[in-house]
Amino acid sequence: MRDLFADDESLPQQWQETLCPGAMILRGYAADMAEQIFREIGCLTDVSPFRHLVTPGGHTMSVSMTSCGALGWMSDELGYRYTPVDPLTGRPWPAMPVFFRLLAENAAATAGYTGFCPDACLVNRYTPGSGLSLHQDKNERDMSQPIVSVSLGMTATFLFGGTQRDAPRRRFPLVQGDVMVWGGQARLNFHGVMPLKETLPPWPLQEMVRYNLTFRRVMPPGVK
Ligand code: SIN
Ligand code: FE2
Predict the structure, then answer these.
(1) Residues 167, 180: Cα–Cα separation, whole Å
(2) CA-to-CA distance for 160 and 197, rounded, in angstroms?
(3) CA atoms of 191 and 213, how far apart (whole Å)
(4) How far apart are CA 75 and CA 36, in angstroms?
(5) How far is CA 180 from CA 49, 154, 191, in A?
(6) 78, 161, 189, 224: which is deepest, by most CB within 10 A?
(7) What pLDDT does 2 receive?
(8) DSSP code of 49?
(9) Which pLDDT tens digit goes with each residue over 125-144?
(10) Percentage with pLDDT > 90 across the chain
(11) What's the number of CA atoms in the CB half-sphere (13 Å) around residue 33?
(12) What's the CA gap between 10 and 92, in Å, rounded?
């Protein structure tokens, strides 16, 4: 499809939307990398499979999750936290693929955050009906670095609010290849994902699924 329009500059394949100071959507930024990202997700879930975590309140999350990188995110009756070992396998989380890290660093720099160096990447898997209720990403010890979130697979409606839970929130469709970056004064903004609706999955997927990679810097540089 793309080649048909390759010479038409009025049809940009990538564009940027600023949501508020500190937060931006880079539309289509990772669209060309979808196949490679799916391959990497396949490899890393062979090591640390997707699982449904339980919140400290005892609720089983509708999204299934895994992680890669030096630290992975987990939740159980004791709370939300990052661990160096996958509790399911008893082994370190799979390494973050270099290509993932470069994608996240470059997207962050494009959004104005130079020097982003993620040490954790959460991988979420949504099927129709799965969503993520409004929350803040606040388990990281280093709040000076942004969150970089890469959407793949089916389109989801993303909710983006303010630093207070009851602040007005806006809805944005996120399609395969969109990268959202929030940091600075938007770093602790509440956000969530509406329950996924049944739609056609984008190429090359054959099943109704959405994946999301969120890259974070958990430990301040120099802290082990
Ligand atoms: C998250 O808030 O951690 C994930 C967001 C998403 O799936 O788009
Ligand atoms: Fe989040």
Answers:
(1) 20
(2) 18
(3) 15
(4) 29
(5) 25, 16, 12
(6) 189
(7) 45
(8) -
(9) 999 999 999 999 999 999 99
(10) 92
(11) 18
(12) 47
Nearest CA to ligand 1 atom 3: 214
Whole-angstrom distance, CA of residue 42 vs CA of residue 127: 17
The tokens for 88 are 């399911």
Atom of ligand 1 nearest to the CA of 158: 8
Please name which ligand lies nearest the alpha carbon of 65: 1
Q: What is the rounded distance in angstroms from the CA atom of residue 99 to the CA atom of residue 101?
A: 5
Angle between helices 98-110 and 34-47 (to 10 degrees): 130
Ligand 1 pocket mutation, candidates 37, 53, 65, 124, criterion most atoms within 8 A of CB? 124
The set of protein residues with a Cβ atom below 6 angstroms from ligand 1 is 124, 132, 149, 151, 158, 191, 193, 212, 214
State in Å: Cα 4 to ligand 2 middle. 37
